[in-house]
Each structure stands twice: as C-alpha cells, then as structure tokens.
Write a structure and sequence with these properties.
The protein is an alpha+beta fold and 199 residues long. 20% of the residues lie in helices and 24% in strands. Strands 8-7-6-5-9-10 form a six-stranded antiparallel sheet, with no helix packed on it.
Length: 199
C-alpha cells in the first residue's frame, strides 16, 4: 500500500483525479476525504453519498469536490491515481497476479508466474500458501511484502529482484511485541499514573 499525498491531491493546480473501480473503493475513499475535512463542491458531506452509481467502475474524484468518468479526466490530461493502490486492505492469495514480486519473511524474493512463485534457485506453488499468504509449517515462507515491477526499470530478468525497480503495494502488519516492563511504561505514559505489575 502506498502513502497518499493529501496536500498534493487537494491542490487544484495539480490536476489529480482518483479512480475507484468498485463501490467498496468509492466508499472507502469518500470516508477518507471526509476524515481530511473535505466536502462536495456544494458543501455536502462525502459520507452522505459517493455518487458511484453515475459512472460505476469508471468513477473518479478530484480534490475540489467534483467527480466524473475516467475518460473525462484522461482527456483533460489529469494524473489518475488508482485508489486500490492506497487502500488499507488485507492482501490475500487471490490478489496475487502474474508479474508481481513477493518477499518472504526469510528474505527470499519470488516472481509470481503461472500459479507459482519462481526465482533462480527454485519455486513455490501458490496453492502452498494459505489465503492470508502464510506458508504452512514454515514461518520463514510467509509472504510479508508484495511489489509491483516498475516497467521502465527493467532491462534484464535479473532486474526483477532489485528493490529500486519495485514499488511496494502491500506489507504485512505484524503485531508489536512488548515485554511486561515495556507495557507497564506504555500504560504509565498513557494514563499518567504509576503502574505496579503484580503476578
């Protein structure tokens, strides 16, 4: 998932539109615009309606309260961003597509290709991963990052695994591990009270 630049989006001079391919994306994006203090041009809240029904999978939004079709903004030479690249959603095995690069917890990187993840020294079958991209019986095989290849950076097949040629699109969120002492300190910080841990 990429970090969305809200200030750049809100600047009318930048000519940026955000494309939402599904109603779920449109609802998520309108909710996020509302959270950033944005409103429709007429002053209504983005929570009241998404206007997704007018253009369906071609719906695009601007940072100044307007929406139209993908083609409308493309013809006017807007930079069109895909909201799915920025949505905070869980990535599943079904989301893997040929041409993506995955990184496992053990550091190995693989190219997704024809139902497998492949690299110079071997391969894994995609059906060996659970839906949440974990490898049964070996935590080192869990997929922790998924990348999209930046096409202009490729010259040879070996370039596929160079991180500067890749764009991170998803990263596994790991639960934070804390000692009892660290938890006590955090509680004191949050409550402003002295905490004593008992057994």
């Amino acid at each position: 998932m990429k970090k969305f630049n809200w200030n750049e989006f809100k600047n009318k001079d930048n000519k940026i539109a955000v494309h939402c391919k599904t109603e779920e994306e449109a609802k998520d994006f309108c909710k996020r615009m509302h959270e950033h203090g944005m409103k429709w041009r007429g002053g209504e809240s983005y929570l009241e309606c998404t206007e997704y029904g007018k253009h369906l999978s071609e719906t695009c939004y601007t940072g100044y309260g307007e929406f139209a079709s993908y083609d409308f903004y493309k013809e006017r030479e807007y930079k069109i961003l895909e909201w799915s690249d920025y949505m905070d959603k869980e990535f599943t095995k079904a989301d893997l597509e040929d041409g993506m690069v995955v990184e496992q917890r053990d550091g190995n990187m693989y190219l997704v290709l024809a139902g497998k993840t492949v690299r110079k020294g071997g391969y894994n079958r995609i059906d060996g991963y659970t839906d949440d991209l974990k490898w049964e019986g070996y935590t080192g095989g869990d997929i922790v990052k998924v990348y999209r290849i930046t096409p202009e950076s490729l010259r040879r097949i070996e370039d596929v695994f160079i991180k500067s040629n890749l764009e991170l699109i998803w990263e596994r969120k790991e639960p934070k591990k804390m000692t009892v002492e660290e938890m006590r300190q955090k509680l004191e910080e949050l409550t402003g009270e002295e905490i004593e841990v008992t057994a």
